[in-house]
Specification:
With 377 residues, the chain is of the alpha/beta class. It is built from 16 helices and 12 strands. Residues 373-377 have low confidence and may be disordered.
Length: 377
């Protein structure tokens, strides 16, 4: 079974709160257990609670559990995530994952409030929901014109012909017509399918007491602006604000997003003097090839950032003072301490724009002067 969520390295690059003691994970809407088993492999010391409304799915998960490595650490339970009893089953969790579930729930806000109750103050909610360009948003409206009820999937030649027509007319031939019945019954047909823009999902999450940390699609979608040297035009927007901007410009079909109960600290992008007191910390998302360090601070050097989990590579031409920052970004030293030997002093605007680019692509986090040293191992 493959890891179906966004890479954990990306998740940890957006979420950098320390975890003290054993980790507890809740999989809300676990189906037959695929995601729970993936978590068990990825976090071999974690305690995992996996719940689903379907007794049949839980029975299948428990059967698979008997022959799955690490499966004994998963507790599968029948539960309704819109019920206030969820907290009694799960307790406080460092990771709550609700992937491909909330789009099919009549009261997503009720479910979100219950998930928040289960989320540790330093924890993260991993959420996967349908976006405004999800195929169901338009196709469900069109199916009745062809005499097909979208509220329930019934296998027939008529349904398959209609899907083939839709695939062909939308320029996505064979995208859905050849999908298995189980996929169509859950992802296109059914009594309910909420496919909302990120702004509307954010509004629901904020009402439940959650704050957006990042959107996995934005990690890729922002890259053309970075490659064109236009990243400074979106400064000082946070990663979450950039994600919202991108979804407004080009709505996504599926949102893989992270939420926290606390607002992420915002670096002092518009105040370079204050920014010097923030402490840069490399994230686990990239490995770096840095050139040899020199004292010619303005000399331009080539830096390569590679991320195997996301299959991405970024090549940057940066001044030597930025290489110095990358070489010493351990979360302990402030930018002021790192740049102390640099003469003449780095212009404030250049520093802000350089650090903002590294922050935007998820290579570096900046810890506020009041924040303790983070441990993400």
């Amino acid at each position: 079974m493959d890891w179906a969520l966004a890479p954990i390295e990306w998740i940890r690059s957006m979420w950098f709160a320390p975890i003290e003691g054993p980790m507890r994970i809740l999989v809300a809407g676990c189906g037959v257990g695929t995601e729970a088993f993936a978590f068990a492999r990825r976090f071999p010391s974690a305690e995992i609670v996996a719940v689903d409304f379907s007794a049949r799915s839980i029975a299948a998960a428990r059967k698979e559990q008997r022959s799955t490595p690490h499966g004994t650490r998963i507790r599968f339970e029948i539960a309704d995530i819109t019920s206030s009893t969820l907290f009694k089953l799960a307790g406080r969790c460092h990771i709550v994952s609700c992937h491909g579930v909330l789009s099919y729930i009549e009261e997503p806000l009720l479910a979100l409030r219950n998930l928040v109750r289960c989320l540790d103050p330093s924890g993260v909610l991993i959420m996967g929901v349908n976006g405004a360009s999800h195929v169901s948003r338009s196709w469900r409206r069109l199916l009745p014109q062809f005499g097909i009820d979208p509220s329930e999937f019934r296998e027939s030649a008529r349904v398959r012909r209609a899907l083939r027509l839709f695939d062909s007319l939308s320029g996505d031939e064979h995208a859905l017509v050849e999908r298995e019945a189980g996929y169509l019954a859950g992802d296109l047909f059914g009594p309910l399918n909420l496919a909302l823009p990120l702004s509307e999902w954010n509004a629901l999450c904020q009402e439940a007491g959650l704050h957006l940390l990042g959107n996995y699609a934005a990690f890729f979608d922002v890259r053309p602006a970075v490659n064109a040297g236009l990243h400074a035009l979106v400064l000082p927007r946070s990663r979450s604000e950039v994600a919202g901007l991108l979804d407004e410009l080009q709505p996504g079909s599926f949102h893989r997003v992270l939420y926290s109960r606390t607002v992420a600290a915002t670096p002092s992008w518009r105040d370079p003097k204050a920014l010097l007191d923030w402490r840069p910390a490399l994230t686990p998302l990239f490995s770096m090839r840095l050139p040899a360090r020199r004292r010619q601070w303005k000399e331009m050097r080539q830096v390569t950032l590679e991320s195997a989990p996301t299959n991405t590579k970024i090549s940057l031409s940066v001044p030597q003072w930025e290489v110095e920052i990358l070489a010493r970004s351990d979360g302990r030293k402030s930018l002021r301490e790192i740049l102390d030997p640099v003469r003449p002093a780095v212009p404030g605007r250049s520093l802000s724009e350089a650090m903002y680019l590294l922050y935007l692509v998820g290579a570096v986090n900046l810890l506020s002067p009041e924040t303790g040293i983070e441990d993400k191992t």
